[in-house]
Amino acid sequence: IKRGDTVKNSNTITTSQNIEVYENKIWLLVDEYINTVLCIHQEDYDSIEKYKKDIANNRIDMFFYIADHIEKPSNNDIELLDSIFNIYIRVCGRYSISPTLQMFGILVGINNMTFSDWANGDYRTASTHGITVKKWKETCGAFALDKLHNQDGTNANLIFACKVAYGMAETAPIPAGQQQGIPQQTAQQIADKYKDVLELPEMEKPEL
Description:
Order of helices and strands: EEHHHHHHHHHH
Shape: globular
Mean pLDDT: 80
Structural class: mainly alpha
Largest sheet: 2 strands, antiparallel
Number of helices: 10
Strand content: under 5%
Distance between the termini: 11 Å
Strand order of the largest sheet: 1-2
């Protein structure tokens, strides 16, 4: 997918022929949403953090927009769904968005209860659906935990999410920096602890 000529895009890559292209349609739609729906441009901001915050604040609308403009994958194709999930969390990571299974479900048109059925082994037991959904949930939980440990102050909502949504009642306490005498964990320490979840393998990009 080649870069369009009418808008300035920020999510392209440059090929060896020095041509800017999109790796997949999702990244194209991210730029399209930012430029034509939000109508904001990074150069108009005095910091990239403010630019990314405005995008993150409109994350729900952005993922609905993307969902409306991609072909819905088949529930049978767990490999394609996994590839889309890897793109999804990269989008979230770029704009400081906390990924969730619910939002991913909106993107691919799958009800959250269906994810639960797969994870619980209620059906599709002959495939890798259950294992894959559990991996997605662990990944979302690891993102939330990393954010919890690397922010200033205490975020009660995030602590609640780690405890309830991701079952981290024992592993997600109030940030260490808030507890007297306990050293703050570094980002590298957290990354090492959850490297199996946070390391995202390069995968063949799907044609959506």
